[in-house]
Amino acid sequence: MHYVEEGAGDPVLLLHGEPTWAYLYRTMIPPLTRVARVVAPDYVGFGRSDKPTRIEDYSYDLHYRSIVRLADELDLHETTVVVQDWGGPIGLRLAVEHPERVARLVILNTGVGAGRAPSQEWLRFRAFVRRVGTDLVPGQLVRISCLSDPGDDVIEAYNAPFPTPESKAGVLAFPELVPTELDHPNAAKMLEVRSALTRWERPALVLFSDSDPIFPPRAAERMAELIPGAGPAEIVPGAAHFLQEEKGEEIAERIVRFLGET
Known about the structure:
Layout: E1 3-7, E2 11-15, H1 29-32, E3 37-41, H2 60-73, E4 79-84, H3 87-97, E5 102-108, H4 120-132, H5 138-144, H6 152-159, H7 169-173, H8 187-197, E6 204-209, H9 217-226, E7 234-236, H10 243-261
Parallel strand pairs: 2-3, 2-4, 4-5, 5-6, 6-7
Antiparallel strand pairs: 1-3
Helix pairs in contact: 2-3, 3-8, 5-6
């Protein structure tokens, strides 16, 4: 597992989603390193980490255990866990199952639960991934999920970790790991994590963008209502699903203030 580690102080763990990697946080890391030790991993199958080549090699438990192992190896304590997209189910599980390591949560455009799809837009996304298979171009997913075009160089950086059909197995696996039905293998665990969040009284910042069709502002309000330690949901204007890409520096400064306040 590849990770970036910069700065000093209490750790801030930055967890990405689908189909990105730690590069997503590149504009956020410098402001955060003013006040924290920043750790930004690439999940197994993403970024510069090793990539098992079979879709069936990937599971929710695999991704979760790899992040637990990282936290153990780096001896992370008093951690602020920042999650977005698939970072939510992974990082929120870390928080509720290893509270001795986690002091705060920052929750960006994500959810955790089971029995229904996050949105109709997400169902269209899953159908698209199933249809195109290994012809999927990860950078194009990022491009069409932003309000403003990130530019060709940025898109190529998102494509770079996936140069062959075999290297895309992790990207193709993630949509199938979302428990849209209650009999899905991941349903019970995700519902358990969601239930545990109703008892999370440590600080939590819920910060969603205003233009994400998968996790709209109402989803932010529901998340903030779920977690006792969260204040009212905050909305970042002018960004879609990958708000770190479009408003990274602004979000980082808000997290710096959150760290100071808590």
